[in-house]
Amino acid sequence: MKFKKLITQESIELYSYVKDYITLHNDTVIGISTDSLCKSNKIVYATVVVLYRKGKGGHVLYRREFKERKLYGKASGKNFEKLYYETILSQQVVEILEDFSPLIDVNLDFNNDPLYFSNNVLLASMGWFKAKGVKVSGKPCCYAQVADEVVRCVG
Q1: DSSP labels for 42-63?
Q2: CA within 13 Å, CB half, 70
Q3: Which of 24, 60, 107, 139 has its CA 20 to 30 A from that of 123?
Q4: Which H or E element spans position 152?
Q5: Under 8 Å between Cβ of 90 and 97
Q6: Rounded Cα gap, residues 132 and 119, in angstroms
Q7: Strand pairing category for 135-137 and 104-108
Q8: What single-letter DSSP state applies at residue 76?
Q9: Strand 11-13 relative to strand 2-5: parallel, antiparallel, unpaired?
Q10: In what order do the strands lie in the sheet with 2-5?
Q11: What is the pTM of this model?
């Protein structure tokens, strides 16, 4: 799966890049998150892999994907398919990096509060990650904030 470095925009092959990085920096946590944003007639998805070293900061890798938008207005905020696709994209990254599963921390950009629609997606999503042996959490979460910045600001 092709990703880019956030700073240089250089394309990289995810698995080999992460493996090499962790070999050099064995104190790395692999943060994974995906966010989406409706823009015009498209949905933009941004998946980030943050190679985080405590006290050193994070090295951000990302990929963006575009899909056709199907719902508009208030209905678009309660689109289970759109939100669950964020989970699928994060699952794909976990599968690629499963050799490093003890180091993986997945942040799902869904609300822990049952009053919010995205809580339904959170509950439907968490089991898969837990079964893979990776740490998983919902909002508030730092890697999801990185994904939010990438989906909004990176061209």
Answers
A1: EEEEEEEEEEEETTTEEEEEEE
A2: 7
A3: 60
A4: helix 142-153
A5: no
A6: 21
A7: parallel
A8: G
A9: antiparallel
A10: 11-13, 2-5, 57-68, 42-53, 28-39, 104-108, 135-137
A11: 0.90
Tokens 């904030």: give the residue: 145
Asked if residue 78 has pLDDT above 70, the reply is no
Q: What is the pLDDT of residues 101-154, one digit of tens each?
A: 999 999 998 877 878 777 778 878 888 999 999 999 888 788 989 999 999 987
Beta strands at 28-39 and 104-108: parallel, antiparallel or unpaired:
parallel
Structure tokens at 27: 């104190």
Q: One-letter amino acid identity for 105?
A: D
Residues in the chain: 155
Cα–Cα distance measured from residue 40 to residue 47, given in angstroms and rounded to the nearest whole number: 20
Instruction: Copy the structure tokens of residue 95.
Output: 């599968």
Residue 87 has pLDDT above 80, yes or no: yes
